[in-house]
Amino acid sequence: MVPSAFDFHRAGSVDEAIELLGRLPDAKLLAGGHSLIPMMKLRLAQPGAVIDIGRIQELSGVCRDGDVVSVGALTRHGEIAASEELRASCPLLAEAAGKIGDPAVRNRGTLGGNIAHADPASDLPAVLIAVGAVVHLAGPEGRRQVAARDFFVDLLTTALDPAEVITRVDFPVAAPGTGQAYLKHEHPASGYAVVGAAASVTLSGGRCTAASLAFNGISAVPHAADEVVSGLVGGTLDDASLASVSSLLSVRDPLGDVHASGEYRVELARVYGRRALASARDRASG
Amino acid sequence: MTRNRVIGTSVKRREDPDLITGRGRYTDDLTRPGMLHLAIVRSPYAHAVVGRIDATRALEVPGVVAVYTAADLEASGIPGVVPTAWLLPDLKTPPHPLLAKDRVRYVGDGVALVVADSRYSARDGADLVEVDYEPLQGVSNPRKATEAGAPQLFDEAPGNIAFDWELGDAEATDRAFEGAATVAKVALRNNRLIPHAVEPRAALAEWDRSAGSVTIHMTSQNPHVHRLLMSLASLGLPEHKIRIVAPEVGGGFGSKIHHYPDEALAAWCAMQLDRPVKWTATRSETNMTDAHGRDHVTEAEIALDEDGRIVGLRANTWAAMGAYLSTFAPAVPTYLHGTLLSGQYAIPAIHVHVFGVFTSTTPVDAYRGAGRPEATYIVERLLDRAADETGLDAAEIRRRNFVPPDAFPFQTQVALAYDSGNYAPALDRALEMAGYDDLLAEQSRRRADGDGPLLGVGLSSYIEACGIAPSQVVGSLGAQAGLWESAKIRVHPTGSVTVYTGSSAHGQGHETTFSQIVAEKLGLDVDQVDVVHGDTREVQFGMGTYGSRSAAVGGSAIVTGLDKVIAKGRRIAAHMLEAATEDVVFEDGAFQVKGVPDRAKAWGEVVLAAYLAHDLPEEMEPGLEATSFYNPSNFTYPFGTHVAVVEIDRETGVVRLVRYVAVDDVGNVINPMIVDGQIHGGIAQGVGQALWEEAVYDDDGQLLTGTMLDYALPRAHNLPSYELDRTVTPCPHNPLGVKGVGEAGAIASPAAVVNAVVDALFHLGVRHLDMPLTPEKVWRAMKEGGRS
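^ inputs. structure came back:
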């Protein structure tokens, strides 16, 4: 790797990271290094300073408090995928994290770094939206919370202010009778999601009481497919009804590249959305 | 007692303990005191006029020592080009300068050099060299490049045509088609591939001003060939003043055969600055500048009689050469491609017409298989198309047309004479292993039930011409080199042996395989044999490793050298035993009088006697050493049948390769584990071509798949566990009976996979799809069926 020159700082605390971000021009935070470093290698990113937050203990770990489970921004994908707590309370997150890259990537890459980069083909953003996660930020003006739906603003763009740091993400603990599933059509080269479908359904007495579905990969920001799931509440989620609603998916300006056009991505999303909902339903019933 | 045989056993690779524990030393691992780093400023345009180049800001970067352009190279008086080494009749050979001067012709064409005291400064400096480009229109498709109005890359090559080449009897072929009962056609694109050796190209050049010589450590498959071309065309130094060393080389697949500007530029910089200079390609640079493979547009057709016997075949191909003619580029779509269009079949009339076409893209040259995968793909797609049109089963139509075993040697209609072969047993064995009939029954069931993924079965009965190559033949066809190989056998006084081979390995395991040959012939342990390769100062001469030639040509050179050593040993032993030389035989590591086992001298005794020279036959020189230059009398012709089984998701078009059966005949096998490994890797590369890989250029010549985020290589989890077997038909014309195995997998597998996918979609009206068979392409074909 031959990046352009940069200054290196290591922050010992969140406050120090915020202070450095505010003071240093063109500074970037370095967590797991799996988004920033490849960009620096290609010189697509040429930060004047890199602030390593990788050793700030308070930013790491999984902690449940009542019906919310908090995941620190520095928690690695591998830890998330293996966490007994998350596999029970937010299985969608654990499943999606386990499908990111390969073991080496999962052992370095972090939740905060992943969502801060906001790559539309990444695996976690749709999960945050499907379960209604809340992103916690800290900055010079204090701390604030942003709903996942408001966090992803555009391609590689988030609601994060330049001097803010993601501290954690809060995930609601899945209600009893909830099943979740993440299905992914892998990009053959990068392993990122051409389409990633994140589904969560809750059943009570055989009837659907809640359903959500969101997609990675098909649009600049993760697509919350409310148009697909809005009619499912109250129904039994039989195959016919899932097939019927999956065709309602509507995506404006779908992404496309040499491997998959926008038209094909939307078609894939219909299939993967239906399959993810069916799998979530089966898990909820089971 | 006969000792255990060494040839034919899976001796573990002697190379691996170092390589897998990080002790392998590759070019980029080497450093020298005072070493500088070279970065090359490359064109971001596919085609542009180069105007002013301003190095002012680059020279201000701390650590930057020098910036050079084409004008500086010219002023130094060096020849300054990289030539092609294969001249076809009427070949247009516009010069390929080490740096572009007035015009750039592909994305990655070098325009300036920045030398600095660190890799970082060099790269910073390169980013700040300001080049005025006046962009011109480019062209990436080789057929479109020949059309009226296409951008012209060279004045000396009107229509962008580098060569216009034909082989076979056009009139006889026309007649065959006129009288045919059935004609089947296919129009196809053989997708452009990027080699992706695990180690990028690199060079470390050191100039010895006192000696006037340069030493270049570099990633080379053929150091002597590189030395020759560096000397004659690039640097202008006498050959003996250039030493090329290939330390560990991390794969090549052909990409490290060719002579590129970059390594020569590192050497030139070292000579200018009188300091060691290193250049190591970044992965993106590798993808832009390593010669690509394939990139053919082909229209082909096959004619059959009422009995399903092939009466004629013809093919018209537009083969991309890229922006300049690379080292062996003109040979690849001609003599390594057109000559293979008879496949395993007795075809009475064949005609092939190939245009070599300049396009504003990275140069194209030999890549694993080189021409033979393209030929196999045409022939085996046509056989399946012929099966479609005649209603014959895919296996049956192949069997019906195989060259029969009693017809060898078999003269094809496209120049080659197959020395040996027995094709039906390999096909039969492959079908048996695959459970062919059961698979077809399952396919019908799934089609009828609409249940489960679609199933497809594809065959590929391939042939290749390897063991490259008989020098007189290739000389008559335009090669500017002989393609023999050399070996020196140095027997040490204590009986151990060092072999110096011109066959320079880059991952194949030559040190193991060649040691096995020596151990077998001399009755030694493998550990008593050292193999030296990859250094022009140590090795007498050599043509290198490519074209599945190392065992067949390099190994044969070792055998003939060993024969010389044994012959001298017999004379010494006869003298010691007071017997006639012709009565002394060498068996099981000892020289003995024929039929009298107790009148014998051990190998070690005879070797020592040769060095002591106290009592040698009259006029015999002391020592025991022999050099051999082996020139093969023909190519070798490995063959086999591969069977691919695929499943296709009916909704998404995702293709999953669920089984892969390969029955290969590579002649005698020296090390079965290494041979299997070669087959495995080759299959993975061919499956990669069929399903995922493609260097995509836009119409103007911008490379859209320049990184591994975009260019899809096969991964372990995409591939099934292969089911392999072999038949053995020894090569009749070399002493080991070996044929070569390095390319077989990559040659056979693309056709097998594509045939399987088209077979799975046949009932929907699909008759052909171009590689790579991406899910979207398959999905559209399922939607559109025969209309696609």
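The longest strand of chain B covers residues 310-322. Residues 256 and 642 of chain B are 28 Å apart (CA to CA).
thumbs up if we can close this ticket
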